[in-house]
Amino acid sequence: MKKRMCLALVLLCATAVAQQAKSNSAGSANPVSDTVRSMLGGRAKNLVAAAEAMPADKYSYKPTEQQMTFGTLVEHIANTNNFLCAKLANQAAPSDKISDKDPKDKLVAAVKSSFAFCETALKSVQDSQLGEQVVLFGGHPAPKAAALFALAGGWADHYGAAAIYLRLNGILPPTAQHAPAPSAKKD
Fold first, then answer.
1. Residues 50, 159 contacting (CB under 8 angstroms)
2. CATH label of the domain that carries residue 149
3. Is residue 93 one of the residues assigned to a domain?
């Protein structure tokens, strides 16, 4: 009985997700770039919230000697956003220079700025351009589609890493926090 109930629930959820995806891209000439644009707001919210949640004195924290510090992760998020979104929009990346040693407020501002840059840059991206070649990391040529997928995949990867760093420091990641209960109205 439990197996059937779980299977029914999974099928119901899968159907709902498929319907939502179908309605979001129905009639769109740019279903791929539209999907990434629609992801941007939520990913920006989560990554900025994670950067803000880590105390300033923990920006030098790294779980093991081989891993990057939290500050380096935040710097990497900002620089990667700027680099990939510039490639996708055929424009220069913002010239703001940041370092993983910069104070928390400067690194958080850089992440916010990088997402604002991506929001503007991605407005002009069309699926018909995704085959155009750009030079990506290490000087390797690749289609713009690779940059778009690296961008979206990076948001998930970077948030996963930030969430682990937060948890290792006793901080609940933004997506694990419960929304506050609605307050009761007093008459």
1. yes
2. 1.20.120.450
3. yes
Q: How many domains does the chain have?
A: 1
Return d(Cα 96, Cα 128) in angstroms, integer. Answer: 31
- End-to-end, the C-alpha distance of the chain in Å comes to 46
pTM of the model: 0.81
Whether residue 116 lies inside any domain: the answer is yes
From the CB of residue 48, how many other CB atoms can be counted at a distance below 10 Å?
19
Model confidence over 81-113: pLDDT tens digits? 999 999 999 999 998 899 999 999 999 999 999
The neighbouring-strand residues paired with 61 are none
- For the chain, list residues with pLDDT below 50: 1, 3-18, 20, 23
> Which amino acid does the sequence have at 103?
P
Helix, strand, coil share (%) of the chain residues, nearest 5: 65, 5, 30
Task: Give the pLDDT confidence of 162-180 residue by residue, as tens digits.
Answer: 999 999 999 999 999 877 7
Q: Would 85 be classed as within a structural domain?
A: yes
CA distances from 176 to 52, 166, 179 (A): 15, 11, 9
- Structural domain including 49 reads 30-175
158, 47 contact by CB (below 8 A) = yes
